[in-house]
Amino acid sequence: MTATDVTSGAQVAQQRRRAARRQIEARVGLYVAAILAAVLAAGPFLWATITMFKQDPDLYTRANNPFIFNRSPTYEHVQYLFSDTTFTTFLWNTVWVGLLVVVITLAVGLPAAYSLARLDMPWGGPLGIAIFFVYLIPPSLLFISLSRIVVEAGLQDSTWSLVLIYPTITIPVSVWLLMGFLKSIPRDVEEQAMVDGYSRVGAFVRTVIPLAFPGIVAVVVFTFTLSAQEFIYALSFVSPSAAKPISTGVPTELIRGDVFFWQSLQAATVIVAVTIAFAFNLFLGRIISGFTMGAVKG
Amino acid sequence: VATLVRNRPRTAGARRLPLADREGLLAPLFLLPAVVYIFALVAVPFVLAIAFSFSDVTAGNPSFDWAGLDNYRAIFDDPVFWRSLRNTVLITTITMALILVLGKVLAMILLADFRGKWLVRFLILLPWTTPVSLAAVSWLWLLDSIFSPIDWVLREVGLLDTNVHWLGKSNLAMGSVIAVQAWRLIPLAAVIMMAGLVSIPRDIEDAARVDGAGFWRRYFEVTLPLTLPVMAVAALFGAILTFTDMAVVYVLTRGGPTNSTQVLASWAFFRGIEGGDLAQGAAVALFMFPVLLAAAIAILRAVRRMEVT
Fold first, then answer.
1. ipTM (interface pTM)
2. A121-133 burial string, b = 16+ CB within 10 Å, else e?
3. How far is B278 from chain A (nearest CA, A)?
4. Which residue of A has its CA nearest to B192?
5. Where are the beta strands (DSSP E) in chain A?
6. DSSP tag of A260
7. Which chain B residues touch A281 with a CB distance below 8 Å?
8. What gap in Å lies between CA B40 and CA A142, rounded to an integer?
């Protein structure tokens, strides 16, 4: 290195400058691409964010530049959303349905995942694959016959129908994810616990679950988001306004006849979108690793 | 208590072990609730859907009477069904192509290191994490027939005199639906590809380079076969989610103008739930099944190939 510096310092300096410029160009290209992608992805929400604070005369004047506040921004429509619409009811419905679905999913899914990941069974392999297939069966294939089952169960127009049905979506994914997390815990840990005097179940409850806790938290977030996102079941089973979750309540109830409460509608989308995306981003890495680990035989 | 149980010599015979230790029994017992749940609320409704499609069940008259192929005959005579089938295939195909190309680009952006990455990642993932129906509401406003900001920009630039009416003309409405589907699923595809690309060991490519393989040979014989399964999984997941979605169409166009953007899932909903004709709705929905099965098998095969590498 020093030798070249001595012999042709100028040449090296030129090369270095060229390399540096190329690197800067690559960096600039990357930033441009990243910003462009972010703006395209978030575009509708950015527009929604501007909209939610606009006054009516500003919003509904076609000649106005839509991207700036031609009149001073107002908080009025966001307030209206919370005080004069059923939005808070939708929100509450989504929250309690989501929490109950999480509880059911974990109660059913954790033992199943443990059984598939650790306990030897003649049908273990095919069952794991079967669960994967169930995950790929979409609600739009089942909603019509399920709507009959919901009626027979006496849950028509009740939010409880969603508590009953949503685990069919969340259990398969969660079992798959949990299998991945459980496989990543070394077997020695439980074996040690069993040597120390715990039963198999005891070892599972006292050592495996605490160790898999970060994974379980990721599954909780994922399960909750899935149940908040679901649309077609909620649309088919629940029609009274007060029983709807946000996914169907916002698009159907905040529009009266032909009157769209645009600012309030957009406020609702932005609030929900940002909250869910925030939770999701915190656990994204873990959710991804769960999916990939689930595919690995262990 | 557990200690006492354990202190009993293990060799005393497997039969005398307490329940909490009998693995042969525990394994199926642990699995049972999940299997029962899935069987009762996925397998049974699936069979029921098939049965419905050969019956005359309606929401008003749920008694089951055999109707043979009547529903299928009625569906085949309905031009809206054929339109829905065509639309579903068209939307899925174009979305899948967009996902493959742009998902890869997005995955590479997400894998790179730069300042403010957390914010960029947050914004990029918004379309996928937001409930579809709410995302569609924000698009509904973006594509508004009078106040669309896209129209405003086009007017300012001088390309437009009045309004485009994005959702009011059948071709534009189809384009809008495709745009929203691609927009919401590209981030998911990018995340899947990202996970897959990270797990591919770099040393295989390096080894090929050392062995003297040129760029193209390396690309076609090493890189492509290694990345192909991941790309396939991402594209197929996107395809399934597009193929079976009705929220976008329902919120954006309600299948209009005059049923020109109807897809199988939305048509099944309008027939089966809003129209109350459960039998016909079930028959329409079942047309999605063969494609789904093929996609699921393809995904499984791709995942298997990823395991091997």
1. 0.85
2. beebeebbeebbb
3. 6
4. A288
5. 255-256, 259-260
6. E
7. 118, 121-122, 125
8. 12
